[in-house]
């Protein structure tokens, strides 16, 4: 079997993600034993971002890296494991909302291919790039402040 | 879409400072009939506005007059903002912890020439097609002011200048409200304290006049450290506005070219600008005797959206602090909230009619903006109300409309980033979007401390509020 990076390179539909991981210098980390759970946005997911977003982000590797590490959680969680959780904590530090009540949704993205096994973890392919924020309990005080990531 | 009535549609039982009425008590279904949609009509008191947001619009009704005022104010705001961000970076990077900062509003020529990262030929990402150095209208004002060509010090002493105090006040507001996302926690970390102390010592020792103060620094290590944090916030706000100035210049140019024709066009442009700038590094570098001290290095991964833009909107658009001229700070009167999250003195709640009188801080900004009004807006304002006589009040109200539009863009950008597209076919997703929009509007309905009465959202729905 291959590791997470090799699978993404081999699949062909993760060209933007693979390039971004290289620019952010996260290749070695994702080749390490882990294990990791990676929510991998495919090329269509990146194409849904407004024009200029990716282009300007690749000029700031540490900031790009922070967004990419939000797509990775430590540990190996299959869809069945995640169905038991409401949240999983990302390597970036913020929580990621998981909803398996009707399909398999990760924050505001939908998983289009789940449980792809790799040597050092597992990959779930998502249809939208997910971004930090809005992961606190929502109540009447829903505010812009509450949409910033948890400190 | 019919305009929401300017009459309040709910009664407030009694104005008790600090009371905690549940929001449900003031909820009444909207009487306005709604167009057919996948979802049933919203039952929120501001249902009209919810539906407008769901259609890609904003908090402000779309009309040519609104658009003209909004864009005109962006232009009038962008020119002083071009000075604010340059001087804020000068404060953060050069003035730093200067105990006697007599000339802090006199940035060196280097800072007027500082290339904006989002304008000009060598931009990281070109938002404004214009040039990267200070705006020509700004340079003309710095040189001549209202009085004529004089040395800058005389302009300053005659108060013929850009009111830089206003931008410092906003940076202080961000600091006091502890706003800057995860960066806030970093300011208390060992790493920050070590970096800041290294720069503080180098700064004090670099000047023979200040070198003895190193003893003071050793005796009271928190004193200059807190000043360093203040300088960090100056940098953060400077880096935030470095983006907004070219965004506002470009939107004004596009409007002049006829490419922005509606309020939703303007919102879309702003949303796109927010996404482009989202990953911009937020950092704090200090330059002492030509050496750069990285107090917050770019490699920490702090970014524009989370560490500058969202905290700014919360601290400045919603909160700031009570105007000395409108609220009593008397602790027994209980007018000023105990909790910072109840502060509601930002631009979205501000009473604009006393602009120009004592104790109303935004007057500073409105005076700055009044120097740079585009011709079409100036002529329009002079035809209204008392013309030149209440120009600052009219500028303030137009500015309030323009900031309601920026807030709309922030709300739409957050919806796009964290939730679902407006045309998502899944009703569950649309319900989530609606809950988010309604949640944002609830901020204008909270009864604590009369927040709902202070909110100007109903005023800006009308054409008579000017």
Specify the CATH class of chain A: Mainly Beta
The arrangement of helices and strands of chain B along the chain is HHHHHHHHHHHEEHHHHHH
Average pLDDT of chain A, to the nearest integer? 86
- Radius of gyration of chain A in whole Å, from Cα? 15 Å
Kindly report the spatial arrangement of strands forming the biggest sheet of chain A: 2-1-7-6-5-4-3
- The number of distinct helices of chain B, counting runs of at least 4 residues, comes to 17
Structural class of chain B: mainly alpha
Describe the structure in your own words.
By secondary structure, chain A is α+β, with helices and mostly antiparallel strands. Chain A has helices spanning 4-11, 15-23, 27-31, 43-47, 53-57, 61-69, 79-83; strands at residues 36-41, 72-74, 87-89, 95-99, 105-106, 109-118, 121-126. Helices cover 30% and strands 23% of the residues of chain A. A 7-stranded mixed β-sheet of chain A has the order 2-1-7-6-5-4-3. In chain A, a hairpin with a 5-residue loop joins β4 and β5 (105-106). Chain B is mainly α and 466 residues long. Chain B has one domain (59-461). Chain B has 17 helices and 2 strands. Chain B has helices at 47-54, 64-95, 109-113, 136-144, 152-157, 164-176, 183-186, 190-205, 213-219, 221-256, 263-277, 304-319, 363-370, 375-383, 391-418, 427-442, 451-454, and strands spanning 284-288, 291-296. In chain B, strands 1-2 form a two-stranded antiparallel sheet. Residues 1-36 of chain B have low confidence and may be disordered. At the A-B interface, α5 and α6 of A face α11, α12, α15 and α16 of B. Chain A: Residues 1-130 form the FAS1 domain. Chain A: Pfam families: Fasciclin. Chain A: This is Beta-Ig-H3/fasciclin.
């Amino acid at each position: 079997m291959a590791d997470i990076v090799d699978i993404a390179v081999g699949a062909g539909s993760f060209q933007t993600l693979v390039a971004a991981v290289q620019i952010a210098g996260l290749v070695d980390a994702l080749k390490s034993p882990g294990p990791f759970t990676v929510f991998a946005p495919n090329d269509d997911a990146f194409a849904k971002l407004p024009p200029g977003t990716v282009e300007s982000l690749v000029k700031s590797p540490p900031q790009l890296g922070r967004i990419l590490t939000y797509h990775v959680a430590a540990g190996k969680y299959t869809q069945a494991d995640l169905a038991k959780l409401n949240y999983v904590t990302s390597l970036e530090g913020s929580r990621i909302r998981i909803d398996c009540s009707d399909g398999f949704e990760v924050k505001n993205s939908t998983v289009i291919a789940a449980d792809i096994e790799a040597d050092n973890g597992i990959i779930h392919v998502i249809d939208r790039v997910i971004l930090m924020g809005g992961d606190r309990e929502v109540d009447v005080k829903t505010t812009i402040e509450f949409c910033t990531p948890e400190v | 879409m019919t305009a929401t009535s300017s009459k309040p549609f709910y009664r407030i039982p009694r104005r008790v400072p600090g009371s905690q009425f549940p929001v449900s008590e003031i909820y009444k279904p909207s009487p306005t009939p709604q167009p057919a949609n996948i979802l049933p009509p919203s039952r929120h008191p501001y249902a009209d506005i919810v539906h407008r947001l769901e259609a890609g619009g904003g908090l402000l009704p779309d009309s040519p007059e609104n658009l003209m005022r909004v864009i005109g104010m962006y232009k009038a705001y962008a020119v002083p903002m071009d000075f604010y961000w340059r001087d804020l970076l000068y404060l953060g990077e050069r003035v730093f912890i200067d105990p006697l900062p007599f000339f802090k509003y006199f940035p060196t020529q280097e800072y007027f020439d500082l290339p904006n990262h989002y304008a000009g030929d060598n931009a990281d990402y070109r938002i404004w097609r214009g040039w990267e150095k200070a705006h020509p209208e700004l340079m003309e004002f710095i040189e001549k002011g209202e009085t004529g060509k004089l040395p800058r010090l005389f302009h300053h002493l005659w108060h013929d200048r850009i009111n830089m105090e206003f931008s410092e006040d906003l940076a202080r507001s961000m600091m006091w409200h502890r706003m800057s996302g995860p960066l806030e926690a970093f300011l208390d970390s060992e790493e920050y304290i070590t970096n800041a102390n290294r720069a503080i010592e180098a700064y004090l020792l670099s000047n023979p006049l200040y070198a003895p103060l190193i003893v003071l620094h050793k005796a009271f290590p928190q004193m200059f450290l807190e000043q360093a944090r203040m300088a960090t916030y100056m940098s953060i706000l400077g880096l935030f506005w470095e983006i907004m100035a070219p965004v506002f210049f470009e939107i004004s140019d596009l409007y002049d070219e006829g490419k922005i024709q509606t309020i939703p066009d303007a919102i879309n442009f702003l949303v796109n600008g927010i996404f482009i700038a989202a990953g911009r590094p937020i950092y704090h570098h200090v330059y002492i005797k030509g050496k750069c001290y990285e107090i917050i290095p770019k490699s920490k991964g702090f970014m524009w959206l989370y560490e500058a833009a969202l905290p700014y909107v919360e601290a400045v658009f919603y909160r700031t602090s009570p105007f000395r001229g409108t609220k009593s700070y008397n602790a027994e009167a209980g007018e000023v909230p105990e909790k910072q999250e109840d502060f509601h003195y930002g631009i979205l709640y501000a009473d604009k009619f006393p602009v120009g009188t004592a104790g109303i801080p935004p007057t500073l900004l409105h005076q700055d903006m009044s120097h740079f009004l585009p011709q079409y807006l100036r002529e329009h304002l002079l035809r209204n109300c008392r013309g030149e006589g209440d120009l600052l009040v009219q500028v303030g109200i137009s500015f309030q409309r323009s900031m309601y539009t920026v807030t709309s863009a922030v709300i739409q950008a957050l919806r796009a980033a964290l939730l679902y597209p407006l045309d998502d076919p899944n009703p569950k997703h649309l319900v989530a979007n609606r809950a988010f929009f309604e949640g944002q509007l609830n901020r204008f309905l909270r009864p604590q401390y009369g927040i709902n009465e202070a909110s100007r959202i109903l005023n800006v729905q009308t054409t008579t509020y000017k």
